[in-house]
Amino acid sequence: MDRLALLEVLRRTRVLQRLPLGALDRLVSQGRVETFPAGTVLIEEGDAGEDVLLLLAGRAAVRLALSEEEGRVVALRGVGELVGEMALVDELPRSATVTAEEPVTTLRIPRIAFLEAIGAYPRAALDLLRVLSLRLRDSDAAQIEALRAKAEQLATTNRRLSRENRHLRQAVDRRFGFEAFVGSSAAAERVRTKARQAAESDLPVLLVGETGTGKELLARAIHSGGARAARPFVALNCALFSEALLESELFGHARGSFTGASANKPGLVEAADGGTLFLDELADMPRPIQAALLRFLELGEFRRLGENEVRHAAVRIIAATSLGVDEALASGRVRRDLHYRLDVFRIEIPPLRERRGDIPELVAEIAAEVAARLECAPLRFTAGALAVLERRSSFDGNVRQLRNEVERLYAMREGGARVEARDLSESMRSGSPTATPRYADALRAFKQSLLQEALVRNGGNRSAAARELGLHPSNLMRMIRDLGVEMPSAARGSEKR
Are 55 and 98 within 8 A, CB to CB? Predict the structure, then answer.
């Protein structure tokens, strides 16, 4: 671009149009013509305001930084317009970035030369102030609009997150909350009401119900709904361990306290500190461990196996038993003093046979859960299939048995998702004889038979029988005594001799 063309562009520029030709010529002489490709950053936010650019060709975008993550285009500048003039007055760093939207040609004028030319002519200085005022107003309006758009975006995001939070909360409630105990019967609602009351306190809870009725599920719901929800929930089945192992599992052990104890190990009481410890099948806990548990409940202190150091933990205890409380006390399976300490808030969980009306809801819930796990369409049970399940004379395994039946149907499904009565297992269709003994009685008889046969096979040798059954000898002796198992005749004869 020749000198005359440059002077013509300057003469049409709003801030410079009141300057005489000689002043414009000096600006041309002191400036530098530059050409940039599209996308070039002409002015970087934060740079010093040392120059002002006059656009001779092309177009540039002024982008205002509204946050660290994003910027917003607040203006487009064309031929005959200035960029960078906002930093000429206050000498502060640039507050915006200017980028070439297309190939541009500029005249770079030094700040000092520009201000000297404008300052010599008051009317030109007034024009500059007017332009700066207009730029500030446009910038503020752009920021306000950007903030309004950002606020609307945040409000939309907040509404979406609120919906997701509700859905997640509902999913958590269905899995771990009180609604996980499915059923609309009066019995089910009564259990949920008592569980909510238990969650509002920090008292020990005793859950009483047959196996498979949902005792651990209810214990988790009480924990999740209480003040300790953010702390650990730790579950322990007392029937799975011998006396020594159970003490170690519960209170921990020191290195070398028994064969195989190669390192110090904290117990579940320490793991549950501040949270909830769920003790399932309390009646199967050996009485010496019950005494240690009682001391822990009363004083909050315990010792690791093999240690003298007294440790402390603040744990809420939820205990459960499938044995009736009266039966557990009468047989001596549960110490009376421990019972009084734990049976503060009792919740009786009814067996499935006492709430048959909940079976359709339970089947639908289990079917949906299994389908989600297997990533397949849920099974649809016909009215006839549901009627067969509801008419079944008993469910020895309660909800667990019902779940097993549904999972079996998923494993055996052949194409269709519709379950007819004929698709149910033979045991479900035929029902159980009305004279079927209670589960606790059947389990007791099974244990008696198991111990009796092991003793016979080992000629009455209790240590050998314990090894065969994977029991500690002291546990075997306790079970023989509690179950009233008779020693084999050969063994009795050898004892008399």
Answer: no
Element spanning 489, H or E: helix 489-496
Q: Are 350 and 187 in contact (CB under 8 A)?
A: yes
Torsion of CA 147, 151, 152, 154, to 10 degrees: 130
Mean pLDDT of 428-437: 56
The three-class DSSP label of residue 160 is helix
Fill in the DSSP letter of residue 422.
G
Q: Please give the model's pTM, rounded to 2 decimal places.
A: 0.56
Interacting residues of 453 by C-beta distance below 8 A, sequence separation 6+: none
Q: How many angstroms separate the CA atoms of 240 and 237, rounded?
A: 6
- Give the pLDDT confidence score for residue 207 in this predicted structure: 95
Angle between helix axes 462-469 and 439-457 (nearest 10 degrees) is 120
Strand partners, 51: 110
CA 271 – CA 268 distance, rounded (Å): 5
**In which residue are the tokens 């048995």 written?**
401
Per the DSSP assignment, residues forming a β-bridge with 205 are 318, 345
Which pLDDT score is estimated for 89? Answer: 64
124-180 per-position pLDDT tens digit? 888 888 887 887 777 777 767 767 877 888 888 888 887 877 766 666 555 667 888
Q: How far apart are CA 454 and CA 491, in angstroms?
A: 13
Nearest in space to 173 (alpha carbons), one of 199, 154, 150, 202: 199
* Residues 363, 386: Cα–Cα separation, whole Å: 8
SS3 state of residue 118: helix
Query: Rounded distance, CA 326 to CA 338, Å?
Result: 14
> For the residues of 13-78, what is the DSSP string, one character each?
STTTTTS-HHHHHHHHHHSEEEEE-TT-EEE-TT----EEEEEEES-EEEEEE-SSS-EEEEEEE-
Query: Rounded to the nearest 10 degrees, what angle do helices 473-483 and 462-469 cross at?
Result: 100
